[in-house]
């Protein structure tokens, strides 16, 4: 059963078309990843789902209901949490205040207290620093806080945008370990946008490859790991923005 479905979604930034007929599905309880170079449109997919950007065309269905062009607050209440690229914590608020901002749509004090303990179990450093201003945390700690803040809304689906951005390899591995735990222990469905293809394909069940706003490849992550194009351009040399996309195009033309 798919909890999220996009059908022929198009979106633009002014005259620039960012998404060109994107169709994808996210099964309930699974982790699905979207891979692609910088500027491919990965973050735009998540922003369109969460209501930050209105699509020009296409349908977005969540739990069987069309949600395109809905207010972002309404979408959060329906059960979609968004961990944005660059974390975007509230720097002058404490860790505790940031977490409670994630629960602003809820009125169950006992449930919120229970979920606070849950995220502290995943990220003990946040409990140690719950009175500290979020802007004074390290980049890795802010990423932990952003994930935890989204969990406090009790989402049915989490959208995660580049969780490894700016983190050391050690912290990246730890963040992805916790993402896998959240999926397994909470049954959380996750749509993950990520440039670190190695980590994304290891943790996810199914993957899509996005090129200049279009889905050009999809398969189970196990099979994507075996594909020559993915190995060469994402696992070996990694995508290098527009230059990487052009080289991939040339490669496909030669075949």
Protein described:
The strands form two sheets. Strands 6-7-8-3-9-10 form a six-stranded mixed beta sheet, sandwiched between helices. It has a four-stranded antiparallel beta sheet with strand order 2-1-4-5, with helices on one face. The chain has 255 residues and is an alpha/beta fold. The chain folds into two domains: 1-79 and 156-221, P-loop containing nucleotide triphosphate hydrolases (Rossmann fold, 3-Layer(aba) Sandwich), CATH 3.40.50.300; 90-154, no CATH class. It has eleven helices and ten strands. It has helices at 42-49, 72-78, 95-102, 109-122, 124-128, 139-151, 169-186, 197-203, 221-226, 228-236, 241-254, and strands at residues 2-13, 16-27, 31-35, 57-62, 65-66, 80-83, 157-161, 189-193, 206-211, 214-220. The N and C termini lie far apart (36 Å). Strand 7 (157-161), helix 7 (169-186) and strand 8 (189-193) form a beta-alpha-beta unit. The longest helix is centred in the last third of the chain and has 18 residues, at 169-186.
């Amino acid at each position: 059963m798919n909890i999220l479905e996009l059908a022929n979604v198009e979106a633009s930034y002014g005259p620039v078309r960012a998404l060109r007929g994107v169709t994808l599905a996210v099964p309930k309880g699974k982790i699905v990843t979207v891979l692609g170079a910088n500027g491919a449109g990965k973050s735009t997919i998540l922003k369109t789902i969460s209501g930050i950007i209105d699509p020009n065309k296409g349908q977005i269905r969540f739990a069987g209901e069309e949600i395109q062009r809905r207010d972002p607050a309404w979408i959060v209440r329906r059960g979609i949490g968004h961990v944005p690229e660059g974390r975007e914590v509230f720097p002058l608020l404490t860790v505790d205040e940031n977490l409670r901002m994630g629960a602003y749509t809820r009125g169950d004090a006992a449930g919120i207290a229970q979920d606070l303990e849950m995220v502290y179990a995943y990220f003990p450093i946040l409990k140690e620093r719950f009175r500290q201003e979020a802007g004074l945390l390290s980049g890795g700690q802010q990423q932990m806080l952003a994930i935890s803040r989204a969990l406090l809304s009790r989402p049915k689906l989490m959208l995660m945008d580049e969780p490894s951005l700016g983190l050391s390899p050690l912290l990246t591995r730890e963040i992805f370990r916790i993402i896998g735990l959240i999926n397994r222990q909470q049954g959380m469905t996750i749509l993950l946008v990520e440039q670190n293809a190695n980590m994304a394909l290891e943790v996810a069940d199914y993957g899509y490859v996005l090129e200049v706003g279009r889905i050009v490849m999809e398969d189970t992550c196990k099979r994507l790991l075996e594909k020559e194009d993915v190995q060469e351009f994402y696992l070996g040399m990694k995508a290098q923005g527009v230059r990487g996309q052009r080289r991939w195009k040339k490669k496909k033309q030669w075949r």
